[in-house]
Amino acid sequence: xxxxxxxxxxxxxxxxxxxxxxxxxxxxxxxxxxxxxxxxxxxxxxxxxxxxxxxxxxxxxxxxxxxxxxxxxxxxxxxxxxxxxxxxxxxxxxxxxxxxxxxxxxxxxxxxxxxxxxxxxxxxxxxxxxxxxxxxxxxxxxxxxxxxxxxxxxxxxxxxxxxxxxxxxxxxxxxxxxxxxxxxxxxxxxxxxxxxxxxxxxxxxxxxxx
Length: 210
Fold this sequence. Notes:
The protein has 8 helices and 4 strands. The chain is mainly alpha-helical. Helix 5 packs across helix 8 (187-209) and helix 6 crosses helix 7.
């Protein structure tokens, strides 16, 4: 069961997403909200750090490896079109390293650990299967919303099939790091991933109603 701190932090994260959703879709300050999106990633990373108890140095290495893996693959992707396909980031996600927003590295940590957390809840023994399916579903929901909000642009207008294959492979490697270094997969991460799923579905519903 989630503890009191997890619940309090999740309430704040949910409120931020609700405000962001309303601000982007129904306010005259949509551009301001879009430019502020990067801070959501950093805030979630900070909240996750607050949930960690008895954190060991080798676990910090595990987080660093997932972050580095995500950034490294994304940088290669932007420069070469491999393995995701040809795309580039806009400036809406803030500070960049080699044309990749820093917050993307934190997003890989969130998605990998959050998917594992849900996978273990669904089936502890074979958690890899639901974890990878959740990761794939997350990207399938994320892509059209991110494209519409102008976070990144695909040369082919829509993400190619290879993007989803690459997500599975990179996600699997990231999850291997998470398991090797015994990274905590808390109730907080499950909650954040659920909030983001609802957030992206909300944008799809808005699209359907237009």
